[in-house]
Design brief:
- With about 210 residues, the chain is α/β, with parallel strands linked by helices.
- It is about 10% helix and about 25% strand.
- It is built from three helices and 13 strands; from the N terminus they run ββββββαββαβαββββ.
- The strands form three sheets. A nine-stranded mixed sheet has the order 1-13-11-5-7-9-10-4-12, with no helix packed on it. Strands 2-3 form a two-stranded antiparallel sheet.
- Helix 2 packs parallel to helix 3.
- The radius of gyration is 18 Å and the shape is globular.
């Protein structure tokens, strides 16, 4: 049987979130007891909690909401590459010669050990020229272990805007520390949130047979 890598952050109270964004919380509103046969919980979270898919609506006022994006982009062969930890930004030169033409989905690992318990403001971002180069190679989805393609302090969102120009899709907050380089089957479907700017995903990689 093909090995499955779960590349999703566990969503739980205390999960690090973007500074100023909504903290995750869960509350048991119904509980099993002699008068109630079930447990039911209420969740409070950001659309960008943990491992998530950005919708075009996140970075363009006229962009599609996540419930209207093409699901095919989030399902299929994906190339996983390891980059040196500590890079400030991924440039096109870091990828040249490593992404074959026709690659549709690319996942970049920049952490030796993913920071599950603490927010890292110095995460590795993406340069817009790297997005442009990847689009020229045929990449339709870019996935990163960072919480954003752009630096935390960015106001221009250059990498996101490059994605918008090329009609690409984004996955952020992937946990890739246990995944070797290679090609895997990616399954990372967003929820069908009709009007939302993003959605948490349950992302997995399955070994290709």
């Amino acid at each position: 049987m093909s090995r499955i890598y779960d590349i999703t952050q566990p969503i739980r109270p205390g999960i690090p979130v973007w500074p100023g964004d909504t903290d995750y919380a869960e509350e048991r509103v119904w509980a099993i007891d002699p008068s109630c046969p079930v447990n039911v919980s209420r969740l409070t979270l950001s659309t960008h909690t943990g491992t998530h898919a950005d919708a075009p609506l996140h970075y363009a006022v006229d962009g599609l909401p996540i419930g209207s994006v093409d699901l095919e982009t989030y399902l299929g062969p994906a190339l996983v590459l390891h980059l040196p930890p500590g890079l400030a930004r991924v440039e096109g030169a870091h990828l040249a010669g490593r992404v074959p033409a026709g690659t549709r989905r690319l996942l970049l690992r920049t952490y030796d050990r993913f920071p599950l318990d603490a927010w890292d403001s110095g995460f590795t971002a993406m340069a817009a020229d790297a997005i442009d180069w990847l689009a020229g190679q045929g990449v339709r989805l870019i996935g990163v272990d960072a919480p954003s393609l752009d630096p935390q302090t960015s106001k221009t969102m250059d990498a996101h805007q490059a994605v918008r120009r090329h009609g690409m899709a984004i996955l952020e907050g992937l946990v890739l520390q246990a995944v070797p380089e290679g090609v895997f089957e990616l399954i990372a479907l967003p929820l069908r949130l009709a009007h939302a700017d993003a959605s948490p995903v349950r992302a997995i990689l399955r070994e290709m047979t």
